[in-house]
Amino acid sequence: MKRILAVFLILALAASSVPPLKGTAKTVIYPTNADGTAIKDSNQCVIDYSNAQDGYVMVKYKESTKKTIKAQVETPTNNKYTYTLRHSAYEVLPLTEGNGSYKITVYLNVSGNSYATVVSETIDVKLSDQFAPYIRPNQYVNYKASTKVVKKAASITKSAKTDIAKVKKVYNYVIKNYKYDKKKAKTVKNDYLPDLNQIYKKKKGICFDYAAVMTAMLRSQGVPTKLVIGYTGSVYHAWVNVYSKKKGWITGAIYFNGKKWKLMDPTYASTAKSSKSIMKYIGNAKNYKAKYSY
């Protein structure tokens, strides 16, 4: 897997941040809007931070161009998240490091590896809820009510009476029905974004795809979910983390055997058929070093 796949995900469940679903399989889609009440606008691009308290900003590059457009979100801890923007449509960029000052900058490629600043804005963010960034769609986990994996999540979680039961249902579904795409891993570009409907149709993907599918399924079932990226050993990888009221944050974890919490990376578990050796590796939190969360 190329290191450029370093674009990725953590998964967090936080029942306290959303209305209880009482065991139903009701699809929950939290909105993302560009309301226009707080913006930084240039002739080429607009940054809409009207709903920054809900853990996201909306960015749109207005002019038609064949040049590469990048957006960078600098967090309160000086971590820098870089996104590739598409043209003429708003994209949702999450604010995932809590309260504080975020700097959003859009760059246009001028030649080679050189970029010019198009527009920039620094905003002070006070989240309405600590889990707000992890219950909505964003550029990396892009879904709506009609997305196939969202409908599948509603179907397979009908009998789930708790959020943890939903996690188990979604986890088992993904590792049993999706295959790792080795060819895609060798050819994927560094600005790749998962198309959840295509992944559902092909039933295979790279680590980024696995995590994006699970995150979309769980968020759409009212389960707050982080997407995080980091290292396993010395290799960039994507995995999911889980939050439980009883256990708190469990790094790289999913409830998987009905009896115990296990650190469970869905890509490794699927590829290795949940062998004892791989279960031992992914059960050790020291093997995971998070770098980004989405």
Task: Give a topology summary.
Layout: E1 39-41, E2 45-48, E3 56-61, E4 69-74, E5 80-85, E6 91-94, E7 100-111, E8 114-125, H1 148-156, H2 163-177, E9 179-180, H3 182-187, H4 196-202, E10 204-205, H5 207-219, E11 228-232, E12 235-239, E13 242-244, E14 248-250, E15 253-255, E16 261-263, H6 266-271, H7 276-282, E17 288-293
Parallel strand pairs: 9-10
Antiparallel strand pairs: 1-2, 2-3, 3-6, 4-5, 4-7, 7-8, 11-12, 11-17, 13-14, 15-16
Helix pairs in contact: 1-5, 2-5
Widest β-sheet, arrangement of strands: 1-2-3-6
Main sheet summary = 4 strands, antiparallel
Report the average pLDDT across residues: 80
Helix content: 10-25%
Question: Which word captures the global form?
Answer: globular
How are helices and strands ordered from N to C?
EEEEEEEEHHEHHEHEEEEEEHHE
Q: What is the first-to-last residue Cα distance?
A: 20 Å
Sheet-strand content, in percent, reads: 25-35%
Q: Which features characterize this protein?
A:
single chain; 294 residues; alpha+beta; four-stranded antiparallel sheet; 7 helices; 17 strands; globular; disordered N terminus
